[in-house]
Amino acid sequence: MSQRRAEAFGQPLVPHVSHTIPFMTLYPKIVSTLLFPLHEHFKGHDTPGILRELERSQWYSQDHLADLQMARLRNMLVAVSNSVPFYRKHFRANGLTIADFVTRDGLNALPLIDKNVIRSNFDEWKAEDGGALARHSTSGSSGEPLSFLLGSHRISFDIAAKWRATRWWDVDIGDREMVLWSSPLEIGAQDRLRALRDRLFRSRLVPARDLSPDRIDRILADIRTFRPRMLFGYPSALSRIAFRARERSLRMDDVGIRVAFCTSEVLRPEWREAIGQVFGCGVANEYGARDAGFIARECQHGGLHVTAEEVIVEVVDDDGKRLQPGTEGDIVITNFAGPEFPFIRYRTGDRGVLSDARCACGRGLPLIQSISGRTNDGLVAADGSWVHGSAINHALRELRDLEAYRIVQESRQYIRITLATRTPLPDAVRSALTRHVHTLLGASVQVEIAQLPEIPPEPNGKFRHIICNVERGQSEPTDNVGAQENL
Predict the structure, then answer these.
(1) What CATH superfamily is the domain 378-468?
(2) What is the residue range of the signal peptide feature (predicted)?
(3) Which end of the chain is more exposed for a tag (fewer CB within 10 A), N or C?
(4) What are the boundaries of each domain within the chain?
(5) Residue 26: how many CB atoms within 10 A of its CB?
């Protein structure tokens, strides 16, 4: 779920440089004002100029930002209705003109799209006057990889938005950064040029795979030596490192870490608490995707701010009807920055809740109240009905000393819940959890609850809380022996 690493935020191998050297206290300023802008210039990106605009516009009023969004939406729709075959046909077939898009409600005249729609219409998705575009792809962690095209302005906007949100935490490009990441799209792309660039920007990659206790101990030692100002990565990986430090009674809050940016997974409350407490730092949730763009990041006041200058975020129900703030639904993104290969009313595959509150930081950027998980993170009840994962996630988050959990469903009649907790699970808690599952899925469902010292992530390094191997509407097998054997 979230935004994957932008090109400019690389992952290097760099030596530790003492904070006591006066020159190095100026180094982030040199990188952010000279080296990184030069880097972006040579890549044909207008990132620094966009950043300057974003640092002004974040303080606009909500009404001013809404007007800015609509102006950019209309400009983008003019471009796609003229130059993108798919949307040109849609506008003509439905008699649409730009005059139909005076308010956000005008978006209802445009179809909701997803990965399958883009794949099926790929040749009609690129603007005829789009020029040279770079091919990108999603990691396919949801089982649905997507190839798509991006122009330099769209890439620049994503990097600038990330850069702005990084500065909210008093850190900048050039401050030491440790990245826990496992995407083969980034790890496999390392070369000498990238390594040199990343050495200059002082960001170190730590592959978030095979996190055995011994390897985590080495990572903890590396953190103490490297002394990063910020961490970035999967919250499941960062929390496992924090839990290991806590287990060893190892103090890490004196290293100098200011913030841990968590992305690509739902940031569980127990993970947030462990990361912040062990490292003595702020914890910032981030939401975005390679395809949809840099959507939101959390500020120091706890507001998960939408990059409103680039995207409109909608939350819709299963039928595509827009939901009001405070109601959970499917997240839909419209990105203004890339008309060459547009993402308009694009289903991200995530679920969340919008907020109509105003953050205490004073920024006018709208807020996402919460990200609940993937739309396909759910379970199939005994009667065949679909139950979204949030219905059971909320119950599990209340368990004491919970470090991680995984729910696997192989049939309508069998579910296994594996918990990693620091203390034994009382019988009363087991019974209450079983009753909750029966309420959700049916009294006939067999519930097995197990405890393990730790629960490993998937091979790609990400952590899946819910794994449902039962298709909606699938007929019920005659028994559940096979399901238990597979577990």
Answers:
(1) ANL, C-terminal domain (3.30.300.30)
(2) none
(3) C
(4) 378-468
(5) 11
Q: CA–CA separation, 208 vs 42, rounded Å?
A: 31
Letter for the amino acid at 206? V
User: Which 3-state string (H, E, C) describes the chain?
Assistant: CCCCCCCCCCCCCCCCCCCCCHHHHCHHHHHHHHHHHHHHHHCCCCHHHHHHHHHHHCCCCHHHHHHHHHHHHHHHHHHHHHHCHHHHHHHHHCCCCHHHCCCHHHHHHCCCECHHHHHHCHHHCCCCCCCCCEEEECCCCCCCCCEEEECHHHHHHHHHHHHHHHHCCCCCECECEEEEECCHHHHCCCCHHHHHHHHHHCEEEEECCCCCHHHHHHHHHHHHHHCCCEEEECHHHHHHHHHHHHHCCCCCCCCCCCEEEECCCCCCHHHHHHHHHHHCCEEEEEEEECCCEEEEEECCCCCEEECCCCEEEEEECCCCCECCCCCCEEEEEEECCCCCCCCCCEEEEEEEEEECCCCCCCCCCCEEEEEEEECCCEEECCCCCEEECHHHHHHHCCCCCEEEEEEEEEECCEEEEEEEECCCCCHHHHHHHHHHHHHHHCCCCEEEEEECCCCCCCCCCCCCCEEECCCCCCCCCCCCHHHHHHC
Q: In sequence order, which residues have a C-beta less than 8 Å from that of residue 20 and are 6 or more positions away?
A: none
